[in-house]
Amino acid sequence: MSRTSFFNRRKLKTNKPEQQNQTKTTIELGKNLAENLKNIKTILGEPSDLIVRETTLGGTDKKCAIVYISGLVDQDLVNNNILKVIQSNMNEIDPNQIDVVFQEKIAITDIKKDNKFDESIDSLLSGSTIFFLDETDTVLILGTAGGEKRSIEEPQSEALIRGPREGFVESVQTNVALIRRDIKNSNLRFNYHDVGNKSKRTIVVSYIDGIVNPTIVQEVNRRVKSIDLDLVAESGFVEQWIEDSFLSPFPQMINTERPDRVASSLLQGKVGILVDGTPFALIAPTTYSETLKSLEDYYERWIVGSLIRILRYIGTFLALLLPAIYIALVSYHQGMIPTQLAFSIAAAREGVPFPSFVEAMLMIITMEILQEAGARLPKNLGQTVGIVGGLVIGDSAVSAGIVSPIMVIVVALTAISSFTNPSYSVGIGFRMLRLFFMVAAAIFGLYGIILAYIMLNIHVANLKSFGIPYSAPFAPAFVKDWKDSVIRAPITMLEKRPTYLKPEERQEKSKNEEKS
Amino acid sequence: MPPMEDKDIQISDKDIIIAVPSILVAVGILSLPAKIAQETISSDGWIPLLISGIVMIFLTWLVVKTVSSFPNQSFFTISSSLVTKPIAIILTLLFVIQGILTAAFEVREIADISQIYLLNDTPMEVLSLVFLLVVIYAVSGERAGIFRLNTLFLPFIIIISLFVIILSIGWIEKANILPIFKTSIGGYAEGIKSSIIYYGNIGFLLFYLGFAKQPKKAPKMAAIGMSFTVLLYTLLFIACVGVMGNGAVSNIIYPTLDLSKELEIPGGFFERFESVFFTIWVMAIFTTTVIAIDITVLALQSVFKKLRKLNIILFIAPTVYFISLLPKDYVEVSTLSNIVTVFALVLLFVVTLLFTILLKIKGVK
Amino acid sequence: MLSSKRWLLIFLITPIFLAGCWGKIEIENRGFVIGTAIDLEGKQGNEKYNLLMTNQLINPAAISKQSSGGGGGGNQKGFINIQDKSDSLFAASRKMRHLTNLIPYYQHLKVILVSEEVIKEPGLFSDVMDVFVRNHELRRGVKVFVTEGEANKILDFVPQIEKTPAMFIEKLTTNSKNAGILEPKRVDRLQNIFIYERSYFIPRVKLVNNEIVYDDAVIVSGENNQMIGTLNSEETKGLLYILGGTKGGSIETKFDDNLVNVETQSAKVKTKLTNKDKENFTFSLNINFEGTIEEHFGTKDLLKEKSITEIEKDLEKDIKQLVERTIKKVQREYKADVIGLGDVIREKHYDLWKNIVYNWDRGENYFSKSTVEVNVKANISSTGAANRIKQKGKRGE
């Protein structure tokens, strides 16, 4: 219900085209070279990194110019493949024929003819070089985008012990190429969208035709097109704009830095969304069980993979419920604690001035502060903060009698457990929910916890990611998908694609079998 | 099936199997062993439990078969075409009453039991209010979500029941089980009478059949779900009597909870297992209550087509809450329980008889 | 639609603020009662008793502190006993709330000690137990013992290893299955016994020379829940073999005039009703004993078939004697069926049982008139790691 209204609001926004074109020039391309160049300079505000190289077409007196922005282009390419060619002997060619120059001379593959001023400026800003010829109202847009780029490195946020070491970079072209390298399939599709009012960003929706459920692709494309932002700075903007429910603590898309993860998801019948300028790609749709999977589960042998996955479920359970259960047991249900343990908890809590809820809150908030502080600091300092915070504060809080030692164990275990979640954004969601459970436990004990748990389940049962129930494959039950959920069955048994995505082609291996 | 459409939900075969125990398993089973043990000698109670179960499996199969011979039609349209519109309205409204009463009873019981086993000092009114609010939250979501919830919760209920049953095997004493088959015919009849009412709520299923994806399979699926429930009840009864003895069971108010109280978990991780058991059991009670209220909404909507779901809920919820507060003590709660269950069972019998006979007379279209 | 959802959300959140934290009592404010002793202080007129209830509360600080370090709370006692008198236990326990700053909490109650004086009053024992079965706070596995003399004296006993006497008794009897001693009665089992008015026994603890001794039992009549006698430790041992399932107890016998000590590995019992005549029921009680030799003072070769058979013969004789003594005592002296013969009739011959149930161990008392034929079959399964440690004639080699 809320989703449809949410989309209605969004549609209203996109229906205001006058805002979007505010900055667009109405200037037409003229035939006069000097005038065109002047126009460009005034539009861009005569920046010093705008390079205008005026010259004559080799051997003739026909005037021409190449315009580019230094830093955005590959300088070698401009010098060797454009400038040299133009200045070389062009006697035998009719200088008026820009087509000839376009087709035969300039040694660049990505080349485009254009006669619109604003489009050429857009491409100029994204690293193209523009070739002007005097007395012509057509320009050539030469794809020379280059400049400084980060090289492919190991992903920082998703380190694996075993697995490929390459991660996405900020350039969407490179990222597309990385995916292409992983999936050498003619059905691999990339839909390009240029999005953003003040600054264009390329968003690429990728999928494999024939595997993916077409309705999902349509929906993703529709939602991406509806984005109405000045600048799409990061894939997080895309995610928040196109997600199903903005009230949910759960991310409805997975973000990843790993091309292999995107590739394997595409082969399962999902859609990848790449955004220029960020190494984080999005994978949609996703389900809850999907967020607890790591690629390493598949790279390791299946027993190891399954056990680690079960461990992650336990970790999530602890991260979510441990402090709440502690509060419930210590404040309400002391009878449930094993007798000897109950006595030692009672002894440890003697002298602690706060009720267990306040005690737990204090420690949890301290833990959150430490985590946040550690994340923002340089690596080396971060470790120091962790040690000082975790060890020193924890220890002295106990000896000062502010908290009980058992509380410190509970909080530490909770914090560590929350890191077993392979997805950082899911982990954050659980950290919020943990507080909710703690409040519920403080008021109603175990009864509160179970009601909170039921509420969480209600939310998950109603949540969808691009039309796929978030609780799949458990509910609705797709029994065939269970062998890759809590456990990870041997790879030889995982030959079928997940059925909950309703892919067009079920058999994952059929193509390979045809070949062999 | 395109995944984007969620307006008109569809229920798969599995959903029907799961829905049956979700509808039936609730607070009833917590006190059921006592009621049956009172009528029978030593462990003989499983016989009436099984007989009434088989009767109800057959009845369910029959009524589901009748109703699902009208594929994709709501209960109201089916009954209108079979028994004229005024009677259809009355029948549907009777189900509304059943839904409200059942929900009220469950809400009341959950508050009472959690007051006994979990929170001794929290007022009953607050406990039931909080529970009811969570139920409303679930009902106000989409209907497919309720079926997903059933699917999510049933494994917990099965696991905890199996856990109790398996753990109690070691505690069962021969003297509590023997002698067998010594109850008189009258005792069995009484036993059947007091056990069959625990299956009456299955009538709720009729309203969901209109959404069934494969209506032809529905009778079989409903019967499977019923058999599962019957089996669960029977096993829990045997475990209760086997561990505690007929004499104790018939004099304990919630024998199933006390059974879990007896058991000690190996390893001693948690003591007082009955608290854990009841905590998990809240889920079972929850699904029943959600379905009861959802059926009420569905039934009201089928008669009064213009009513909006949320408005109905806002009207029903206070009613349920008010009724749940009416009984003053446990004896009155038991009376309410008897009224609700007998009402549901009689309604189910009436609907089954009416529909089956009229369908025979009019013939399938 | 969104706004109505918001309304719902607000609806859901508000009760949380309305709610306080009813009944929230932090663990350190709980007074954990782990043992309760019930004594009879005297009668007030007829039918009104004055009961003395003693609760043992633990002192968590003293219990969980490691004894190392010496200083501080090392000498603190691990428990506090508080007591109050009233005519009902519930009233007494409520009165006790004034005696300590802690709120008495019974969920960790482990043992209930009832003095013989209480059980000797007809019907009082079952009345006293009512509160323990009725109250949801209590576990159903609480162990019930009878004490010789005043029950609260036992709660004053300071054990050597455990910190509290209640825990000591609890642990002493937890391993009863493997130590050849009686399994304690659980309070929940008593409910069934009371309802069916069966006669039963309750293990007894007593203080002897400042030591807790746990080796005998009292017999209680099912008719009015009144104690009718005791079984001494030898008779209790016999009872163990009749009930079967015992393990770990040792039994001595002579072999070639030297002592042989055999540990019980298992003792399986099968009882059959062989004569259905009301006036002369005959039961055959077959005990299948299996044991291992743990100690042998002689020099004979134990690995020989002959010696083993001889030991087994002796054992059979000894066990039979033990068992018959116990049976004789409960049958002839107490006339109360605590050895489960009635159950045999009930389980196998229910119609017969229905006829005699009110004259079984009361009224006509067919129980005391019945005959029990005891057959013991002993089997030595192992002689331990060595055959013997002394050997005659070996020196001459």
Tell me what the structure shows:
The complex is a heterotrimer of chains A (516), B (365) and C (397). With 516 residues, chain A is α+β, with helices and mostly antiparallel strands. Chain A has three domains: 33-143, no CATH class; 172-286, no CATH class; 306-462, no CATH class. Chain A has 19 helices and twelve strands. In chain A, the strands form three sheets. A five-stranded antiparallel beta sheet of chain A has the order 1-2-4-5-3, with helices on both faces. Chain A has a five-stranded antiparallel beta sheet with strand order 6-7-9-10-8, with helices on both faces. Chain A has a two-stranded antiparallel ribbon with strand order 11-12. The longest helix of chain A has 39 residues, at 424-462. Chain A is elongated and about 100 Å long. The model of chain A is unreliable at 1-23 and 507-516 (pLDDT under 50). Chain B has 365 residues and is mostly helical. Chain B has one domain (6-358): Amino acid/polyamine transporter I. Helices cover 75% and strands 0% of the residues of chain B. Chain C has 397 residues and is of the alpha/beta class. Chain C has two domains: 29-63 and 77-231, no CATH class; 233-387, Nutrient germinant receptor protein C, domain 3 (GMP Synthetase, Chain A, domain 3). Chain C is built from 13 helices and 14 strands. In chain C, helix 5 packs across helix 8 and helix 9 (233-243) crosses helix 10 (305-334).
Sequence-ordered SSE layout with sheet pairings:
The complex is a heterotrimer of chains A (516), B (365) and C (397).
Chain A: H1 2-14, H2 17-20, H3 33-44, E1 50-56, E2 63-69, H4 75-87, H5 98-105, E3 111-114, H6 117-125, E4 129-133, E5 139-142, H7 172-182, E6 188-195, E7 201-208, H8 214-225, H9 235-242, E8 254-256, H10 259-268, E9 271-275, E10 281-284, H11 288-291, H12 296-299, H13 302-331, H14 339-349, H15 356-376, H16 379-399, H17 405-418, H18 424-462, E11 464-465, E12 468-469, H19 510-515
Antiparallel strand pairs in A: 1-2, 2-4, 3-5, 4-5, 6-7, 7-9, 8-10, 9-10, 11-12
Helix pairs in contact in A: 7-10, 13-17, 13-18, 15-16, 15-17, 15-18
Chain B: H1 13-24, H2 28-39, H3 46-68, H4 75-83, H5 85-117, H6 124-140, H7 143-169, H8 174-177, H9 185-196, H10 205-208, H11 218-244, H12 246-249, H13 255-262, H14 273-303, H15 309-325, H16 330-362
Chain C: H1 2-18, E1 30-43, E2 49-58, H2 60-64, E3 79-86, H3 89-95, E4 103-105, E5 111-115, H4 116-120, H5 124-134, E6 143-147, H6 151-154, H7 165-174, E7 185-186, H8 187-196, E8 200-208, E9 211-221, E10 226-231, H9 233-243, E11 250-255, E12 258-275, E13 282-296, H10 305-334, H11 341-348, H12 350-356, H13 366-369, E14 371-382
Helix pairs in contact in C: 5-8, 9-10, 11-12
